[in-house]
Specification:
single chain, 13 strands, D-Maltodextrin-Binding Protein, domain 2, 5-stranded mixed β-sheet, alpha/beta, Double Stranded RNA Binding Domain, 34% helix, globular
Length: 303
């Protein structure tokens, strides 16, 4: 193989991620030419529609996956938080690069942190996960829809449409805008989405040479954590519009999973954490899944 075709969305963040993956691969495979293949997805075309209206997270990846299946691209680079938990049968996540900060960021031109915001302040966010978690801390906060890429969301904040907005730390940092962050929200405040902060590389299962290339830049611990989060999301039946936060991480020899689940209206909340041995990740996921079911997570998410 002389040329590796890298499918990506056309947003600034997506192109940054694709070029980052390209750089990592070329450092290990100097004789390989990486070619970026920008693709406009349904989610990009309908950026004023809700994810539910577009049919879920697949709106941001279907065209990229189709490029893999039709062999017009060799790999597709994704933000893992945008990936559906069930992939097409022909495809696989072959690698995850070293995970960036997975937390959410509080961004405001008026307030230095979330706790400073007075009652009735408005936060821009279209994420039910973020909205419901912040409402449990301060029920008097108001929320309004916020869509578009990172630059568009910051423009809306700067125009005065919102008192603050919430964005992923990883995305805003990758675009060189870290100075806009006023506060990084603690896990106890806002549990991130499964896969947040991680860049995943999707391939066709039958492309063995491509898999070998991609696996050379895989970060083992990042892949384990993201896979655990996605497995738990699958067990919970999580979709894009459900208020669920899942974070898995290593600390020395231990492994932990922290989860936030609530119903659509935010009336009932379940928070759970499970610790275990780093050598038995599947058991930790299984235990916390059982705990959540005993507390009624399945009925909660169907409300």
């Amino acid at each position: 193989m002389k040329i590796l075709r890298i499918a990506t969305r056309k947003s600034s963040l997506a192109l940054w991620q694709a070029n980052h993956v390209s750089d990592l691969i070329r450092k290990r495979h100097c004789d390989l030419e990486c070619q970026i293949v920008p693709i406009i997805t349904e989610g990009d075309r309908k950026n004023n529609s809700s994810l539910r209206e577009m049919g879920g997270k697949g709106a941001f990846v279907k065209e990229l996956e189709w490029a893999l299946i039709k062999d017009t691209a060799d790999i597709a680079v994704h933000s893992m938080k945008d990936m559906p938990v069930i992939l097409p049968e022909e495809l696989d996540i072959a690698a995850v690069t070293s995970r960036a900060n997975p937390m959410d960021a509080f961004i405001s031109n008026q307030y230095s942190n979330l706790s400073e915001m007075p009652s009735d302040s408005n936060i821009g966010s279209s994420s039910m996960r973020r909205v419901r978690q912040l409402q449990t801390l301060n029920p008097k906060l108001t929320f309004s829809e916020l869509r578009g890429n990172i630059e568009t969301r910051l423009q809306k904040l700067d125009s005065g449409k919102h008192d603050a907005i919430i964005l992923a730390v990883a995305g805003i940092t990758r675009l060189g805008l870290k100075e806009r962050i006023r506060e990084i929200l603690d896990l106890n405040v806002c549990v991130p989405a499964a896969g947040q902060g991680a860049i995943g590389i999707e391939i066709r299962k039958d492309r063995h040479e491509v898999r070998q290339i991609v696996e050379s830049i895989n970060d083992r611990n990042s892949l384990i954590c993201v896979s655990a989060e996605r497995e738990l999301a699958l067990q919970l039946g999580a979709s894009c519009d459900l208020p669920i936060g899942i974070y898995a991480g290593f600390s020395k020899d231990s492994f932990s999973v922290q989860v936030f689940v609530c119903d659509h209206l935010g009336e009932t909340v379940i928070r759970e954490v499970e610790f275990g041995n780093s050598n038995n990740v599947a058991e930790v996921v299984s235990r916390i899944s059982a705990k959540l079911r005993r507390k009624g997570s399945e009925k909660l998410l169907k409300k």
